[in-house]
TrEMBL record:
InterPro entries: Glyco_trans_2-like, Nucleotide-diphossugar_trans. Keywords: Transferase. This is Glycosyl transferase family 2. The keyword Iron-sulfur does not apply. One of its GO terms (molecular function) is transferase activity. Residues 10-144 form the Glycosyltransferase 2-like domain. Transmembrane segments: none annotated. Pfam families: Glycos_transf_2.
Amino acid sequence: MQSFAPIALFVYNRPQHTERTIKFLKQNQLATESRLFIFSDGFKSPEDEAKVLEVRELLRNVDGFKSVEVIERKENMGLANSVIAGVSRLVKDYKQVIVMEDDLITSPYTLTYFNEALNRYRNEDRVMHIGAYMYPLKENNIPESFFYRAATSWGWATWDRAWQHFEPNIDTLMGQFDARKRSEFSIEHKMNFWKQMQDFKKGKNNSWAIRWYASIFLKGGITLNPAQSLVNNIGHDGTGIHSGINDIYNVIINPKPIGHYPSEIKENKDAYEAIREFLSTRKGNLWERLKRYVKQRLG
């Protein structure tokens, strides 16, 4: 009998986003087979208290899953510590986990994709992460799903055997990079992954995701991804703690289930080139950048 992965959903102070996230998650084909664990972080300031309590109130009425457990934190852990603790707990108990945050809308087949992939690659040690988000790529010659080096954080899944390699210590991670590895890690410097590592060390961000990707990269790991995204992030409206107003990464969600999974465990060259091209040109020309800047300033 197939064992479906539990879902860890991390929420904070955005009731409307949380409600939409749960609504779409509930419409997944495997929702009724899935255990949902909702981790509600404690409020950071008195200003956040009312919204946190509003979120917790709506969580009392969540149904449509095999089971629902709400974990209400008394203190504010912050997203990074909350994710690390929640994922660690669930992989210990269930050996696998699907991870969602409060600003992600899903396809009806997102949970199907995760569970298919978790079962298919369970014993493939090099496969360490399953991502559900993909950039809006223009190329058409990419298979429905493919392997790639970087780990996306907008809806993902993993196993206990992979998560045990998560290294939270930034100095331990950074000490293992030379110039060649920094280039490969940063998609030939087309993405600011290394800067995110430096910013974490300086205390400018508190990202669990960049440390998880670095942990995977340094182990020679690889990630599975869909060619067309199975999630979209609705948190780039300025309401999020960690999200700016940005439409570069908006996608049209794939309305169909994934029918193809790669059998060869290696990075897909065509997909890598398509992603590198997207990252090279994603900010557009000077005029497009100026328009986006004005839009952000005007709110």
